[in-house]
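Illustration: Cytochrome P450.
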Amino acid sequence: MADNRAGTGTALPKGFRSAEQGWPELDRIPHPPRRLPLLGDVLGVDRRTPLQDSVRLARGLGPIFRRKAFGNEFVFVWGARLVADIADESRFAKHVGLGVANLRPVAGDGLFTAYNHEPNWQLAHDVLAPGFSREAMEGYHSMMLAVAGRLTDHWDRELAAGHTVDVPGDMTKLTLETIARTGFGHDFGSFERSRPHPFVTAMVGTLTYAQRLNSVPSPLAPLMLRDATRRNAADIAHLNRTVDDLVRARRESGRGDGDLLDRMLETAHPETGERLSPQNVRRQVITFLVAGHETTSGALSFALHYLSRHPEIAARARAEVDRVWGDTPAPAYDQVAKLRYVRRVLDESLRLWPTAPAFAREARKDTVLGGEHPMRRGAWALVLTPMLHRDPEVWGADAEQFDPDRFDAKAVRGRAPHTFKPFGTGARACIGRQFALHEATLVLGLLLRRYDLRADPGYRLRVTERLTLMPDGLRLRLGRRTAPAQAAAALTAPQDAVSAGRCPVHGMGD
Ligand code: HEM
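Result:
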């Protein structure tokens, strides 16, 4: 976290811009009551669940608050008014801090972890964004269907054997295979393995390590985390090896079919003619394999949890799938976006459990947040998305209730902008948003159509944190549905105009 600059191209003073330096009126921002000298706000918190602890504290402390751990103080923002202000791109930009900066040893200046001023961000963004245009997405659709078929084959076998299914485990297999296949023409063989692929184990290891680094005083980290640091180095080496093999195989076999890896290796920047360096390609491949599956897998898992808990919502979603898809074995690309209600189920799941649960923003220049809190250039705050998504002023007194109708078109139009931010904001918002939404809607549709989802009545939702969120230990019992009787009644939903605008990803706003 040594290099900390705003996205203006001008360097800030070197070093960690602490909250004390960055927020001249820090004292006006509340913190938890029982603050200990040296240690900070550590009483009653659990190092395995920093996000859920912050959510709990936020309820008592209000729309902006701070937490101190071992000398480092962090400011959190979640009130809708303040978040809308911090989303202003003319005054704020992404801040690469905390967990994200801890991933720099593995992902370097890859898209997700790049500092705003690093030239490889713009280069990679411009080269890779067309890989998420509508045309590109349409090309991925049949591969997504094929991978989903492997999931349903697996679930059919589990059902026949009378087993319950491991939802987060199987969703992780599905989303890893999907990004590997569509992005890199690669097959990890996840469904044929009884244990997670070593790539997944190494990835979970680095994510968990990056989170742990935040919970120990930095000078003591080498001592306290000695073994974990050694394991992390081995994990990173494994990730690098896997990716190098994959890239080598592609170079040897010649061109793929225009997938992300082809773009990384072959495509020059449309204006400058520049290409990604081999080292940057390695970082981008790791970035996409990690960012492209972990969060989507969590989103699908939470959605399946809620569907199993709300049979009436599942029935409504299933009726829509039957109506829109009829009994076509392979729904077409255009038929996915027509699952409006299924998509609402997904949005509502991402509202309650945004699987990338925070993003950091820094001031590009001296400014006053929400007209109340002065910030110096380079000062930063974490947007606590699960609390933004529960702000009662926006979502009502029943904000904790799962209700997909919060996302019907009229309700969405009636809400202020920047109140729903599971994919981050601005120029550094998620490049894979449409990819994730298409994949997850398609898979939910296929699963709803094929199975009844039966919750274990004894299960209480527990959420594990490793920078991303995932329901812990969620298993479902499946029932087999018979083929839908209704014929398809085509809806006339307009397609998302993904390819509009200069940037195919951010041209459509967030
Ligand atoms: C439900 C699924 C997903 C969620 C909730 C999610 C969430 C996010 C969020 C919040 C950010 C911004 C982080 C920040 O400001 O620091 C982000 C960035 C990013 N996401 Fe996603 N994401 C998802 C799926 C995907 C997929 C499927 C891909 C790739 C295929 C992907 C690739 C990326 C990349 C490369 C960035 C960095 C973009 C940049 O800074 O230019 N994500 N994502």
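Reading the tokens back as a structure: Residues 94, 100, 111-112, 125, 179, 287-288, 291-292, 295-296, 299, 354-356, 359, 422-424, 428-432, 435-436 surround protoporphyrin IX containing FE (CB under 6 Å).
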